[in-house]
Specification:
Layout: H1 3-37, E1 52-67, H2 72-78, E2 86-102, E3 105-117, E4 122-138, E5 141-148, E6 180-190, E7 196-208, E8 221-232, E9 235-243, E10 250-260, E11 263-280, E12 286-303, E13 308-316, H3 323-343, H4 347-360, E14 368-376, E15 385-394, E16 399-408, E17 414-424, E18 436-447
Antiparallel strand pairs: 1-2, 1-18, 2-3, 3-4, 4-5, 5-6, 6-7, 7-8, 8-9, 9-10, 10-11, 11-12, 12-13, 13-14, 14-15, 15-16, 16-17, 17-18
Length: 448
C-alpha cells in the first residue's frame, strides 16, 4: 500500500464515516415515520415453513492500524520494511448458508470466502465451514455426520471446555468458525417430575488423518468425545470428555443458571492431561515441560431495566505463559533485532517468527484475563443504534485493549459497525509489545 491509499483511508475514517453515520440515522428515523403511515397486510405464505433455506452475508471490512515502532512485535514483523506509522488492511467476505429438509433428514452447508489485502500479502481463501447431514427419526434421537461446529461451553469470550471447536477470537467472539469432520449422535429425554428436567447424551467420533482433520492434532488416530447434559434444578450442566491419540485426554464441565430473570451466571473448567509446554528464554534457548493443565472461566451476563447488557468474564489459562516467560520471549526478539541491524542476518528473527506463529502468537497466550463488554440498545430512544465498549485485559501484567463501537441496523438487511480504540501496556507486557498502538475498523455487512 502506498501513501495515497493510506491518506485516503485516514480521511475516510476521520471525516466521511461520521457524516455517513449521521445520514444513516436520519434515514432510519424518516423510514420509521413512513412505516406508521403504511397499511399493514398479512400474508399467510410469509409464515409457512419452507423445506429449504438459502442465506448469508456479504461484507466489506477495512482496518487501520496505528503502529508502535518501539514494540517487540513491530520489530519482528517490520524489520525489513520502511518505518511506517500506520498500515491498513482490506477484507471482503462472502458467507453462504443453505439447508434442505426432507422428512426426517436435513442437509446443511456453510461456506466462507475471504479476500485479504494487508502489508504482508494479498490472498483469497475459500473454505467449507460446515457441511453435514442430520437424521432425526424421533424427538429424542438425532444422528449427524459431516463437517460441523459443536459449540460446546458456556463462556462468551473463551471456552476452555470446547474440545472439538476452534478457538474463538475474543475481539469478535460471535464470528463463525470452521468445524471438523465428525460423526455424532444425540439422545435427549425429558422428565415430567423431579429435580432432573432434561438429560441428553452426545457421543462423537472425530478422525484425524492426512487430509482429514489433519490440523486437529497428531494424525493417524481415531478420537472419541462425549458430552452429558443435565437440566437440574433449573441449572444447565454439561460434562465433557475427549480421548484418542491426536490430543491428550481431557475432561471438562460447564454450567449456567439464571439467578434472576435478568442475571445469568456461568462457569466452565477443563483438565488437560500431559500438556506439553514449549518456551524460549531471552537467548533463544528452548525448553519443554509436561504437566496437567487446569483451565477455568467464571462469568455473568446482566440486563438492566434500561436495556443495558453487561458481560463480565474471568479466564485462567493453565496452558499459558507467566509475565516473566512472556518478557523472555520479547527480550529474545529485541536481541534478534539487534543482531539483524549489526549483521543483516535475519536468522534469529526468523526463529522468533516461528515461535510467534506456533506458540506465542495464539490468541491470549498469557495466564489470566479479564473481559468486560457493555452494550446499550437504542440509547435515548434512537432506534437501530447500539453503542458498546469492550475491554480485554491481561490481569497479570495490567495491559489491555479498549474498543468502543457503534452499530447501526436501520436499513433493511444492512449492518454498519464502526469501532476503534487503544492498545495499552508497559514495556514487556503482552499488549504493550503488540505491533499496534490502536486500531480503527469499519464493517459494512449485507444479509440476504
Amino acid at each position: 500500500m502506498g501513501k495515497a491509499p493510506n491518506l485516503w483511508f485516514k480521511r475516510f475514517f476521520c471525516m466521511w464515516l461520521p457524516c455517513l453515520m449521521l445520514i444513516l440515522i436520519y434515514y432510519s428515523l424518516f423510514a420509521i415515520h413512513l412505516s406508521f403511515c403504511e397499511e399493514y397486510k398479512f400474508d399467510v405464505s410469509e409464515i409457512e415453513k419452507k423445506p429449504y433455506h438459502i442465506g448469508g452475508y456479504l461484507e466489506f471490512y477495512p482496518i487501520l492500524f496505528g503502529l508502535d515502532k518501539t514494540s517487540a512485535l513491530y520489530k519482528l514483523n517490520f524489520y525489513d520494511r520502511d518505518k511506517e506509522s500506520t498500515t491498513e488492511q482490506y477484507n471482503g467476505t462472502l458467507q453462504l448458508e443453505a439447508s434442505l429438509e426432507k422428512g426426517i433428514s436435513k442437509l446443511y452447508v456453510k461456506t466462507y470466502t475471504n479476500y485479504l489485502n494487508s502489508y504482508q500479502y494479498e490472498t483469497t481463501k475459500f473454505k467449507i465451514f460446515e457441511g453435514n447431514l442430520s437424521v432425526k427419526p424421533s424427538s429424542s434421537w438425532i444422528f449427524e455426520t459431516g463437517k460441523k461446529t459443536m459449540s460446546w461451553g458456556k463462556g462468551y469470550a473463551w471456552n476452555p471446555a470446547a474440545f472439538l471447536d476452534r478457538t474463538k477470537d475474543p475481539n469478535d467472539p460471535e464470528l463463525s468458525r470452521e468445524g471438523f469432520i465428525l460423526a455424532s449422535m444425540d439422545f435427549t429425554k425429558s422428565f415430567a417430575g423431579g429435580n432432573l428436567k432434561t438429560f441428553s447424551f452426545t457421543p462423537v467420533v472425530i478422525p484425524a488423518y492426512s487430509g482429514v482433520n489433519d490440523d486437529f492434532g497428531e494424525v493417524g488416530h481415531l478420537n472419541f468425545a462425549s458430552k452429558f447434559y443435565f437440566l437440574f434444578h433449573d441449572t444447565d450442566i454439561d460434562f465433557m470428555l475427549l480421548t484418542g491419540g491426536s490430543r491428550t485426554t481431557r475432561y471438562g464441565i460447564d454450567l449456567s443458571k439464571n439467578i434472576l430473570t435478568n442475571l445469568e451466571v456461568h462457569g466452565e473448567c477443563s483438565l488437560i492431561n500431559g500438556y506439553k509446554k514449549t518456551k524460549v528464554d531471552s537467548s533463544g534457548n528452548t525448553s519443554q515441560s509436561t504437566y496437567n493443565a487446569f483451565n477455568y472461566l467464571v462469568g455473568l451476563r446482566y440486563l438492566s431495566q434500561k436495556d443495558t447488557t453487561f458481560i463480565l468474564e474471568y479466564y485462567h489459562n493453565g496452558t499459558g505463559y507467566t509475565p516473566n516467560e512472556m518478557r523472555d520471549y520479547f527480550s529474545f526478539i529485541e536481541k534478534a533485532y539487534e543482531i539483524y541491524n549489526a549483521t543483516g542476518n535475519p536468522g534469529m528473527l526468523n526463529k522468533a517468527t516461528n515461535f510467534a506463529q506456533n506458540i506465542y502468537g495464539r490468541a491470549n497466550p498469557g495466564k489470566n484475563y479479564l473481559y468486560l463488554r457493555i452494550l446499550q440498545k437504542d440509547p435515548f430512544d434512537i432506534l437501530y443504534v447500539t453503542p458498546a465498549i469492550t475491554m480485554l485485559a491481561n490481569s497479570d501484567d495490567k495491559s489491555f485493549s479498549l474498543m468502543p463501537e457503534i452499530v447501526y441496523t436501520g436499513i433493511t438487511n444492512f449492518e454498519f459497525r464502526l469501532r476503534g480504540g487503544p492498545i495499552v501496556g508497559k514495556s514487556g507486557s503482552e499488549y504493550g509489545e503488540k505491533q499496534n498502538d490502536y486500531r480503527i475498523d469499519f464493517r459494512i455487512r449485507y444479509y440476504f
